[in-house]
Amino acid sequence: MIGQIAIDNVLTNQAVTAEGLFRSALEKFTFSDHDKRHRYEKANILLAYGHLLQKWEKREDIGKRLNNESYEIYRSLYGQCDGIDDAFKGLTLTQAVQFQM
């Protein structure tokens, strides 16, 4: 839930607030590696947060790392969840973020 609020803040150009919410979502929410829904939600948060950081000077590398981590989670889920397979096939980072938002 916090992750979605952070994404909403990105969309309304409240980047600093969004970053705090992304951090909170990643630090406080206990993601289960065995729950596909948790892994998918974590990937969404990492993707959107990484996209935000890539727009900030001197934070681009962190953003790229978070996006790579999100892609690895999406790849691990490929074929396991309805909708993921076709939703992200061939999308660029920007398109994938916009799809989630």
What's the story with the biggest beta sheet?
none
* Helix amount: over 70%
**How does the helix and strand content classify structurally?**
mainly alpha
Distance between the termini: 13 Å
Integer-rounded radius of gyration: 13 Å
* Spatial shape: globular
Q: Low-confidence parts lasting 5 or more residues at pLDDT below 50? A: none
Give the number of DSSP strands: 0
Strand percentage, roughly? under 5%
Per DSSP, the total helix count is 6
Q: Give the integer mean of the pLDDT values.
A: 79
Order of helices and strands: HHHHHH
Characterise this structure.
- With 101 residues, this protein is mainly α.
- It has a domain at 31-100.
- The protein has helices at residues 2-11, 15-28, 36-54, 60-77, 84-88, 93-100.
- The mean pLDDT is 79.
